[in-house]
Amino acid sequence: MDPVLIDVPERIETERLILRCPRPGDGPIVNDAERETRAELKPWMPWAHVEKSLDDSEAYCRRMQARYLLREDLVMFIFERDVMGREGRFLGGSGLHRIDWALRSFEIGYWRRSGCGGQGYITEAARALSRFAFDHLAARRVEIRTDDANSASWKVAERAGFTLEALLRGDSLTPAGEIRSTRVYARVRGSRSG
C-alpha cells in the first residue's frame, strides 16, 4: 500500500498536552522557541547551530506539513493543553521519524524549549507517540536513540517505558566533531514493553 493512503490523525491529545502536525503560520512560535533554547540544544542537535530567520522557520513548518501528508516524516509540535482543551504555550517538537512502513518501524525524537524541563512534558509526549504508533499505525517497533552523554534524553526513554537494547560505541559525531556513543531504546509489539 502506498503510505500516502494510510490514515494518520494530525492531532494527539493527552491530559496535559496537544501534539499536532505543523501548519502554515507556525513559523514564529517555532522560531521563538528555537532562539530561546539554542544554547541548550547545541551539544545534541545539529540544526541548533544555525540561526534561522522567521522565513526559514515558516518554510520548515510548511515542508514538515508536506512530509507529514506524504507520510515521510511525522513531525509533531507539542503544546500545553489549556482547561478548555485548546492549544496553550508551545513546548517543543517531537514526532515519528526514520519511518519504515514495510516493517512498521518508527523512531521518536524530541526537543523541548528552555524553561519547560522537569515537568514530565516530554515523557508524556513520548508515551503518547508510542501508543499512537502501536494503536493507530500498527507499529511493530518504536525506537528512541539518544547520545550516551545526554542523560536528560535517555532518562525520558526510560521513564516512557522503553528498554535499552544497545550502546553503540563511537558511532556518531557531535555537531562539534567529538566522537560519541548512542543508546538505542525500543518498544516492540508483543513484548512486555510494547
UniProtKB/TrEMBL annotation:
Keyword check for Transferase, yes or no: yes
Key words of the record: Transferase
Q: Does the keyword Methyltransferase apply?
A: no
Kindly give the PROSITE patterns that the UniProt entry links to this protein: GNAT (PS51186)
Q: What does UniProt give as GO cellular component?
A: cytoplasm
Gene3D superfamilies tied to this protein: 3.40.630.30
Which residues are in the N-acetyltransferase domain? 28-184
InterPro entries cross-referenced by the UniProt entry: Acyl_CoA_acyltransferase, GNAT_dom, Ribosomal_N-acetyltransferase
- UniProt GO MF annotations: protein N-terminal-serine acetyltransferase activity; protein-N-terminal-alanine acetyltransferase activity
* PANTHER family associated with the record: ACETYLTRANSFERASE, RIBOSOMAL-PROTEIN-SERINE ACETYLTRANSFERASE
The protein depicted here goes by the name GNAT family N-acetyltransferase
